[in-house]
TrEMBL record:
<dbReference type="GO" id="GO:0009423">
    <property type="term" value="P:chorismate biosynthetic process"/>
</dbReference>
<dbReference type="InterPro" id="IPR001874">
    <property type="entry name" value="DHquinase_II"/>
</dbReference>
<dbReference type="Pfam" id="PF01220">
    <property type="entry name" value="DHquinase_II"/>
</dbReference>
<keyword id="KW-0057">Aromatic amino acid biosynthesis</keyword>
<keyword id="KW-0456">Lyase</keyword>
<feature type="binding site">
    <location>
        <position position="80"/>
    </location>
    <ligand>
        <name>substrate</name>
    </ligand>
</feature>
<feature type="binding site">
    <location>
        <position position="74"/>
    </location>
    <ligand>
        <name>substrate</name>
    </ligand>
</feature>
<feature type="binding site">
    <location>
        <begin position="101"/>
        <end position="102"/>
    </location>
    <ligand>
        <name>substrate</name>
    </ligand>
</feature>
<comment type="subunit">
    <text>Homododecamer.</text>
</comment>
<feature type="site" description="Transition state stabilizer">
    <location>
        <position position="17"/>
    </location>
</feature>
<dbReference type="GO" id="GO:0008652">
    <property type="term" value="P:amino acid biosynthetic process"/>
</dbReference>
<feature type="active site" description="Proton acceptor">
    <location>
        <position position="22"/>
    </location>
</feature>
<protein>
    <recommendedName>
        <fullName>3-dehydroquinate dehydratase</fullName>
        <ecNumber>4.2.1.10</ecNumber>
    </recommendedName>
</protein>
<comment type="pathway">
    <text>Metabolic intermediate biosynthesis; chorismate biosynthesis; chorismate from D-erythrose 4-phosphate and phosphoenolpyruvate: step 3/7.</text>
</comment>
<comment type="similarity">
    <text>Belongs to the type-II 3-dehydroquinase family.</text>
</comment>
<feature type="active site" description="Proton donor">
    <location>
        <position position="100"/>
    </location>
</feature>
<dbReference type="InterPro" id="IPR018509">
    <property type="entry name" value="DHquinase_II_CS"/>
</dbReference>
């Protein structure tokens, strides 16, 4: 199977961005680990980080044409704002897991609402970069069934 990992705005700054909230690993560290896990399981992983909403939307549109089986997405701040990104995921009808590094529920109230949680297969929040690893484990299981 092919799994696509999408990272939203500002996640390119991981490692230096509020490390007390988001940890000290960089996005490259996380992507490399996910790619290795996926390869070891005999599957293929693609990833994209973008600060532009339209690039994430276009990538999701392309995912359907490419036959991507599963999406793991950290929409970052777009979690709380983007009907357009939600609609893109609904349009392509590819199952996805929503992940967050921080526990959005113990932060500001504007982070408590997500435009994605009610249409996701599941959500994982607050476990740092392990949120991605656990999502990948679930995605691989999902893809194999
Ligand atoms: C985040 C949480 C969001 O509220 C925030 O805007 C982010 C990162 C997380 O992974 O914890 O940029 O999605």
């Amino acid at each position: 199977a092919t799994i696509l990992v999408l990272h939203g705005p500002n996640l390119n700054l991981l490692g230096t961005r509020e490390p007390e909230v988001y940890g000290s690993e960089t996005l490259d560290d996380i992507n490399a680990r996910l790619s290795n896990t996926c390869l070891d399981a005999g599957h293929h992983l693609m990833h994209l980080q973008s600060n532009a909403e339209y690039e994430l939307i276009d990538r999701i549109h392309d995912a359907r044409r490419e036959g991507i089986n599963f999406i793991i997405i950290n929409p970052a701040a777009l979690t709380h704002t983007s009907v357009a990104l939600r609609d893109a995921l609904l349009a392509v009808d590819i199952p996805f897991i929503e992940v967050h590094l921080s526990n959005v529920h113990r932060r500001e109230s504007f982070r408590h609402h997500s435009y994605f949680s009610d249409i996701a297969v599941g959500t994982i929040t607050g476990l740092g970069s392990q949120s991605y690893d656990l999502a990948l484990q679930a995605a691989l299981q999902h893809a194999e069934n």
